[in-house]
Design a protein that fits this description.
Layout (H helix, E strand, L loop, with lengths): L4 H10 L2 H7 L20 E3 L4 E6 L8 E7 L4 E4 L2 E4 L8 E3 L4 E6 L8 E2 L3 E2 L4 E4 L2 E4 L8 E3 L5 E5 L8 E5 L6 E4 L2 E4 L8 E4 L3 E6 L8 E7 L4 E4 L4 E4 L17 E5 L2 E7 L5 E3 L4
Antiparallel strand pairs: 1-2, 2-3, 4-5, 6-7, 7-8, 7-9, 10-11, 12-13, 13-14, 15-16, 17-18, 18-19, 20-21, 22-23, 23-24
Helix pairs in contact: 1-2
């Protein structure tokens, strides 16, 4: 506030110390320059960076001014000259941190403020969604599916983290395969089926085995003078044409190896004799 110049002059002249100080007399006891209060004792205002500015004085001129600054406490901000809590959350709230962790609302601190706590990383198999860590379970318990290798995958769990996961079920090994999420027999043949093996023997369909599956058994060679007919899938008597020369091999269908991946086969030539072919 502005001091009354008449009263100020009078106070300086008569040397009233208390009034002179209040009205701003100089060292000679003469009135000094008039000053104007910037604030009143007890007033505060907000500065930059959440600093609280305090009104102080009087100074040598008897005026009050904005003086020292004090930082607001942790988790506080300055608003209208008062340091107060930001309180960005309420106890029980949680959010997902950009780094993939979960942040929980904590407090109150020494200033009675609430604040977001440090991020807590989700455990293995979990991700933060909707403010909390949750499992990325790809399945529900007892679900089944076939993988690309036709193995049976069964949904198991929960794990320690409460998650469900796919695990390989070995029940599809051997003569079974996975189809539409279930183990089924490969069934390479049906009961009563036969087939010829390179013309020299017959293979019969066997089963069901302990798994209820059917498969081809071992080859049973045809009797001497017989060969397996691919039309009948049975061993039949064969009357070879009369050979007028020399047989190069013992029976039709006989094979000899020429290399690891190549062989020669025995067959009847036009003259009725058994000869080796050029190789396959």
């Amino acid at each position: 506030m502005m001091r009354n110049p008449g009263i100020r002059f009078f106070a300086c002249m008569i040397g009233l110390a208390c009034l002179a100080s209040f009205f701003g007399c100089n060292s000679a006891g003469e009135p000094g320059e008039l000053c104007q209060d910037s604030c009143q004792i007890g007033e505060t205002m907000c500065g930059t960076s959440d600093l609280l500015v305090i009104c102080e004085g009087p100074n040598s001129m008897g005026c009050f001014f904005w003086g020292s600054v004090e930082p607001c406490g942790e988790n506080q901000t300055c608003t209208e000259g008062v340091c107060g809590c930001v309180n960005p959350c309420q106890i029980g709230d949680s959010i997902c941190d950009p780094g993939g962790g979960q942040q929980n609302c904590e407090g109150p601190d020494v200033n009675d403020c609430l604040f977001w706590g440090a991020p807590v990383l989700c455990t293995a198999g979990q991700t933060c969604t909707g403010g909390s860590c949750a499992c990325e379970s790809p399945c529900e318990v007892d679900d089944t599916v076939c993988d690309q290798s036709n193995r049976l995958m069964v949904c198991e769990g929960p794990s320690i983290e409460g998650c469900y996961f796919w695990n390989v079920d070995d029940s599809c090994d051997g003569d079974k395969t996975c189809l539409d999420g279930d183990c089924v027999c490969k069934n390479l043949c049906s009961s009563g089926d036969n087939m010829c093996y390179e013309g020299v023997g017959k293979v019969a369909c066997e089963g069901p085995d302990l798994n209820g599956c059917f498969g081809w058994g071992d080859m049973v060679a045809c009797d001497e003078g017989n060969m397996c007919s691919t039309e009948l899938n049975e061993c039949v008597k064969v009357t070879p044409p009369e050979c007028e020369d020399v047989n190069e091999c013992d029976y039709e269908g006989q094979k000899i190896c020429m290399a690891i991946d190549k062989y020669r086969g025995c067959h009847y030539a036009d003259g009725g004799c058994l000869v080796w072919d050029c190789g396959t």
